[in-house]
Amino acid sequence: MNLAIVGSGYVGLVTGACFAEVGHQVICVDNDLKKVHSLQDGHIPIYEPGLEELVKKNVAAGRLSFTASIGDAVAVSKVIFIAVPTPPQPDGSVDLSFVEGVAREIAVHIKEEYRIVVDKSTVPVKTGEKVAQTISRYNPGADIDVVSNPEFLREGSAVEDLMKPDRIVVGVSSNRAVGPMKEIYTPFNAPIMITDLNSAELIKHASNSFLSLKISYINAVAAICEASGANIERVADGMGADKRIGRAFLNAGIGYGGSCFPKDISAFIRISEELGYDFRLLKEVETINRDQKERFLKKIREALWVLRHKKIGVLGLAFKGNTDDVRSSVAIAVIQQLVAEGAEVRAYDPKAMDKARSLVPEVKMVAQAEDVADGADALLVLTEWTEFKSLPWLAIKKRMLSPLLFDGRNLLNPDEMRSLGFTYTSVGR
Ligand code: UDX
User: Fold this and answer.
1) Would you say the pTM of this structure is higher than 0.85?
2) Which CATH code for domain 286-425?
3) Which atom of ligand 1 is found nearest the CA of 214?
């Protein structure tokens, strides 16, 4: 099928590449002409495993192309996906101006043929209704249906998540859109759940908020583990073995970050408020997440006593492993606090150093993980990169001034680290 994806950012690009991979004819649109040209030349602006190969392969096969013109894309595409940013505003609500702007532009380019406009951006409930009203206002004769089709991609495994989804959610306001949407997604071999527009939009906010809730819950239990001498990993394993609970997203640490969870949870609280419900449960999830970072910093302060002029080595800047994304990264927030208290920080991340530099300009970035240890009073693990597990830890210890190791992601084995001579502290273990 001929598809257009408006917005060639993280979600749009991965979605477009995967749609092309299963045989659809895809045009990705972006208003940034420089980006369009560089995508046409095969340069991918983000690090995402498997994406570059997929884009190159499908461009070469003639199934994937890039343009800056919404008009050109709308003219030939039966289904138009909106995948533009929905950034947070200072009050926690969502800035929908990009979605609205794209809806207006799509509207004026729709001629007499039927078109389906699909919202893929994460938006508050009732946005689809507004998109439909907007298109009708700017083009009263437009024969359209608006669909909500939220994405559930995790950064770092986005291609795999899209190619092998748990479920596909399609919210419609008319049955006419169901057939084409099923046709698009049939090659992905996953259950397709057809709902109304508002339910589909809610599924996205409710899912991300629930996952954040799981993380805050396990972090709260980790605090009880620390106070009682229990081990959070054993507790999470025991809980997670119950199919009703599940082990995923029960990893304690310094809290969740990234471009989705913090934004989506505050947007969900905000839209709930507008609809007359005070979502106190989710407010507490946010508070626990903030506290988690503070609890970690407190352990460092207690061990080092004074932070001023202390040399601290940091492993990890990205908001999680396998990505170069540093947006709302708890690692960055921890470093900023350490720097504010006078510590001298050296840091290493396999992918995120370039993007982190402007956020923590005082930090010296080093070329190799081991180099963060030189003369360090303490070393912190702040991102769950698997490769940190197999670093030459004994050699690292020898390069440190004092062997304090704080593992904010419970990545390393406590017994092994202690047997190497580290004074090892993690979360809830
Ligand atoms: C999330 C959702 O998982 C995805 O479905 C949605 O489409 C976008 O938002 P993402 O932001 O890429 O994906 O990251 P995710 O893997 O969910 O992790 C979010 C944060 O939670 C990270 O900071 C991670 O370190 C943290 N986390 C995750 C934990 O602290 N503990 C866990 O058990 C899992």
Assistant:
1) yes
2) 3.40.50.720
3) 33
